[in-house]
Write a structure and sequence with these properties.
Number of domains: 2
Structural class: alpha/beta
Number of helices: 7
Number of strands: 26
Distance between the termini: 59 Å
CATH topology of the largest domain: Spore Coat Polysaccharide Biosynthesis Protein SpsA, Chain A
Helix content: 10-25%
CATH architecture of the largest domain: Alpha-Beta Complex
Strand content: 35-45%
Largest sheet: 13 strands, parallel
């Protein structure tokens, strides 16, 4: 089985961070979002992946080849950002068997073992999670047996609260691409995009049985506020703690937090829900719900709900900020 991972998006909701860092490589709890996904796929035996690249493609490709040298990767350029179906159709030349499609917008906790147990019974699996803010998502309306009947994009009425989270396993790959081509031939949506969910609807309308599967955990990282929430969640588990190579002098620490090797903290209060990456220096600061990149230097600041890039310098700032790598920002006394 192969996987397809679309990575071409510009991540506009996460700007300014994504001006210089591809959205899938933004870090939560000290690790890029994409790394959580690739580690999961490697554990279930997938070692050949088609990456659909675009924005900052060189950065993405270099990182994957460096961090996952054993991975067999194919890199396909999506020149026009025309939606999810427009991305996946580019993988067609590489797919001649069942396929797993994953959109790397979140950290997931799912049972990939369902692929082995359900593959012979259904034409595909769509993982989904019940949500209250169903208007933000494409929601899945199911039949009595749990198979998909239809997908409704961002409904105004509560036809379903079962949100499509962007993880799919398809056995009938030929019908999938037939559906994608049908979707593209029909013309774009009012937003100018072609939706992969329309291809799934085509499959169902042509006799496919696609089962919905529950999600153990789904932590979004597609917006600054949800990225920080995901960071906070991961710190409550094995990603939290203070590395023995960190130096903490006269500071109050409030768990959960993550302080990596080479970090120097003097005075102030750190936590809860703070990640300080390798080599950061933080002096006389109070930080809450904040991610600080490697090598950053913070002094005499009070930050909440903030993202500070690598090698950035922040002095005398009080409030919530999002600053990119190598930014220098200073307030006044």
């Amino acid at each position: 089985m192969k996987a397809v991972i679309p990575l071409a998006g510009k991540g506009t909701r996460l700007r300014p961070q994504t001006h210089h860092v591809p959205k899938p490589l933004l870090r939560v709890a000290g690790k890029p979002v994409l790394a959580y996904l690739l580690d999961d796929l490697r554990r279930v035996g997938i070692d050949e992946i088609v990456f659909i690249v675009g924005h900052l493609r060189e950065t993405v490709e270099t990182w994957i080849k460096s961090e996952y040298p054993d991975l067999s990767g194919h890199y396909v350029l999506q020149e026009v950002q025309n939606g999810t179906a427009g991305a996946i159709v580019l993988a067609e030349p590489y797919i001649e068997e069942e396929v797993l499609i994953v959109f790397p917008d979140a950290v997931l906790e799912v049972d990939y073992g369902l692929i082995a147990t359900e593959a012979s019974r259904y034409d595909g699996i769509i993982w989904a999670k019940e949500v209250e803010d169903y208007q933000r998502f494409g929601v899945i309306v199911t039949n009595e047996d749990g198979t998909m009947a239809r997908i409704v994009e961002k409904p105004t009425d509560p036809v379903s609260k079962l949100a499509n989270i962007g993880l799919y396993y398809i056995t009938d790959y030929e019908l999938l691409f037939e559906g994608i081509h049908h979707t593209i031939a029909a013309g774009p949506s009012p937003s100018g995009e072609f939706y992969l969910t329309d291809a799934f609807q085509y499959m169902v309308d042509h006799g496919s049985r696609i089962i919905t599967a529950p999600v153990g955990g789904w932590w979004d990282a597609g917006k600054p506020e949800t990225l920080l929430e995901t960071n906070a969640h991961l710190l409550t588990g094995e990603r939290g703690g203070v590395d023995e190579g960190a130096i903490v002098e006269g500071a109050e620490l409030i768990a959960p937090l993550r302080i990596e090797t080479g970090v120097l903290v003097r005075g102030g209060r750190i936590g809860p829900n703070v990640t300080l990456e390798e080599g950061a220096v933080v002096e006389d600061c109070c930080l809450e719900h904040t991610v600080v990149g490697s090598g950053a230097a913070l002094k005499s600041s009070r930050l909440k709900h903030s993202i500070v890039g690598r090698q950035a310098s922040v002095t005398l700032i009080d409030g919530s900020i999002s600053v990119t790598d190598h930014t220098v920002i200073s307030g006044s006394t």
